[in-house]
Amino acid sequence: MNSDKITKYVLFVTSFIILIVTGGMLYSLIQGSLPSFHTFGWKFIISPEWNPTKGNEHYGALAFILGTIYTSVLALLVALPMAFSTSLIVAEYFRNSWFANVVSTCVDLLAGIPSVIFGLWGFYALRPFIVHIGLTQQGFGVFTAGIVLAMMIIPYAASLSNSVIMMVPNELKEAAYSLGATRLEVIWNVILPNARSGITASYILAFGRALGETMAVTMLIGNANIVPKGLFSMGNTMASVIANEFGEANGLHLSSLIALGLILFVITALINAAGKYIIKKFA
Question: Is the keyword Cell membrane in the record (predicted)?
Fold first, then answer.
């Protein structure tokens, strides 16, 4: 057997293991969530009630689905202009300069920081500031968690956007400059039309990353099992309620937490699929 065939088989086995792990994970989630869906049916998804009291148990995912969407959408809205500005600075305005290298290094550094560090920063720096300016009394809630989440997803959106913007052919930009276009006109009429699919996909993938974030959100959202009534209301996300209650859960309670995991798995998979579709469709 020659080296090419050995390499091919090794790569195939490695890739197949990933398929097995993904399939096994999905199977475990489905199997574990069946008791909950069998008991509550589809009302599990639309019910906002979450009561783990023995003898009066009732579980619904709506409060956590909305909490997850609220924090993730807020994070995306905050991260979008910051990541877009950073990508233009690094990939266009200060390309190959020392300043772009410093900014790019900081972005890469943020991507490697553990989420618990972001949570500590939010708890000891951002939360007291929010209390000080009078937005909330305790500083916990959707707003605080969303801001910290935005800081966490900026590197994902900015890094991919940098690469996409740098891939725009220089010939197109030079042709626009030769016709008298300004830098801003080149960005809007040449760079963005050619890079829009990649930039859009980067934000979709960052949104998918925000949906599943656990530790920092758990430390800052307030962990109240209610539907958030506003931007500064406390709440809970699917990932944070699983992290908070999984260790003490059993029976139907445990099955309901696994069902939340299955819903989060499906939503994240759909978000990632949408990002890949956009890349293929408009690339």
Answer: yes
